[in-house]
Amino acid sequence: MTPSLVCAGLEVALNRYLQLEPAALADCERMRDSSIELHLAGFEWRLFIEFDAKGVRVGNERAEPASVLVSGAPRAFAKLALKRDHDAGLPPGLEVSGDAEVLQRFRRLLGRVGFDLEEWIAPLIGDGAAHRATQALRSLLGWTRRSGDTLAMNTAEYLREETRDLARGVDASDWMDDVDRLRERVDRFEARIAQLERNKAHKQ
Amino acid sequence: MSSDRSDPRDTTHFGFEQVPVGDKQRRVREVFSSVASRYDVMNDLMSLGIHRVWKRFVIDLAGVRPGERVLDVAGGTGDLTREFSKLAGPQGQVVLSDINAAMLGEGRRRLADKGIVGLPVVQANAECLPFADASFDLVTIGFGLRNVTDKDAALRSMRRVLKPGGRLIVLEFSKPLNAGLSKIYDQYSFKLLPLMGKLVANDEASYRYLAESIRMHPDQQTLKGMMENAGLERCQVYNLTGGIVAVHRGFNLAA
Predict the structure, then answer these.
(1) Fewest CB within 10 A of the end CB: N or C in chain A?
(2) Which segments in chain B show pLDDT lower than 50?
(3) Banded model confidence at residue A23, pLDDT cuts 50, 70, 90
């Protein structure tokens, strides 16, 4: 059985997230009759998410089956949680059975919740300071992201051009095409040999 | 009160001792009147400060939202009340309730020290709460249920005052899940705890009662069954610190 503290942790995290958007609670209320079962393969944990006007409840047992069952490895659930586009399809490795619309509604609900850092810290340090602080943080995060991208590009170029440990994309593509052509020729050659053998057997 | 209606020959436990049902309430009152002024210091000493983590878990699990009405039964020195009051905000209301006047006085004083004033403080027996049906979004009872004479009546009473969809959270000592931990815990409870009570609060008997009352309290599954019998649904047990403490939560889903 799923440890109850895991259920509590997920419930507290989801409810805190949903609390950022008051309209999300109205959506939870509308989903009151729906429920979602998450089955984490490997751990064999089952978590049941139920909805009410206060957010969600997460338990480890339920008398009736849930509206929808989502089953997969923890890694697949992690990919689902990190996916930005909540209208896009599910990551590979997840199986859904039951009313998939319930899962889609929940994903859209989570996607609608936004987190505005400036609004959050403004009561603490004032509007002006909050604006400048969030701008500075955005600049810092942007610089970090750009630096990370540049470092990744430079490292990849060094491994391709200097040490030759990695193939260039275009070279790898040419090589794959050559392999495909060779495979097709071998297949044709094999078919011709088979045909010659059949002809020889027929003449004898 | 159920104790008033009961047969005077009926007995119940007071720690390991069997006492007439009508006597338990008085004797529990004497214990808590005795320990009230040093209750929080002793809690820190007895639990090595972990009681703050247990209470934090209850606060997080309760997820009180602005505007909600909360009842803290057996709220004692008001630890939970204080946090709930911040979360419920000016639109909400938190009621601190306890059967013991000395504990309530201590709670009111501590809340005032923290700048929380004007909060309703009600001396009430958990078995027959003096509130209207369906009047609270959340009811909590922290380390109080084991001292109640008729626990079933208290659970029914707390469910009665919950709004539809409201939740009851019970924080209470329980049964350790591991036999090794249980032995260590026994030694600690029956040898070290009364000694600490004697040295810090000069009251060995009261702290011996606290240890004994914990052993006489229903274990996790029994209490869960009692909550279900009281009409609560989706009951869930959360074991903390190896089951030394358990949080039980149930919902009043009846419309």
Answers:
(1) C
(2) 1-6
(3) confident
- Which SS3 state, helix, strand or coil, does residue B163 take? strand
Structural domain includes residue B201 = no
CA-based nearest distance B124→chain A, Å? 28
pLDDT digits (tens, 9 = 90+) for A29-65: 999 999 999 999 888 899 999 998 889 999 998 888 9
Considering CB atoms only, which of A7, A50, A54 is closest to B63? Answer: A54
Angle at B130 between CA B128 and CA B136, to 5 degrees: 100
* CB contact (8 A) between residue B238 and residue A4: yes
Interface test with B, best of A21, A29, A57 (most B CBs within 10 A): A57
Q: Which of A140-149, A171-180, B8-17, B115-124 has the lowest mean pLDDT?
A: B8-17
Calpha distance B250→A132 (Å, rounded): 46
Q: Are A46 and A39 in contact (CB under 8 A)?
A: yes
Domain contains B239: yes
CA-angle at A127, arms to A123 and A128, nearest 5°: 145
Q: Which of B60, B165, B238 sits opposite A52 (nearest CB)?
A: B165
Tokens linked to B189: 């409870």
Q: Where do the domains of chain A lie? A: 4-112, 116-166, 177-204
Is B191 within the bounds of a domain?
A: no
List C-alpha distances in Å: B153 to A30, A80, A93, B137, B231: 35, 46, 50, 20, 12
A4-112 has which fold? Nonspecific Lipid-transfer Protein; Chain A (3.30.1050)
With a threshold of 0.90, tell me whether the complex ipTM lies above it. no
pLDDT of residue A174: 93
Q: Which residues of B fall within a CB distance of 8 Å from A55?
A: 63
Does A19 sit within 8 Å of B236, measured CB to CB?
A: no
pLDDT in tens, B176-190: 998 888 889 888 888
> B87 lies in a domain?
yes
Q: Which residue has the tokens 């939740």?
A: B167
* A59 vs B contacts (CB less than 8 Å): 234, 236
Number of domains present in the structure of chain B: 1
Name the residue range of residue B37's domain.
2-176+211-251
- Tokens matching residue A119: 């609004």
Tens of pLDDT, residues B9-62: 577 777 677 777 777 777 777 777 766 667 777 777 777 889 899 999 999 999
Mutate to test the interface with A, among B54, B58, B60, B253 (most CBs of A within 10 A): B60
State the nearest Cα–Cα gap between B254 and chain A, in angstroms: 13
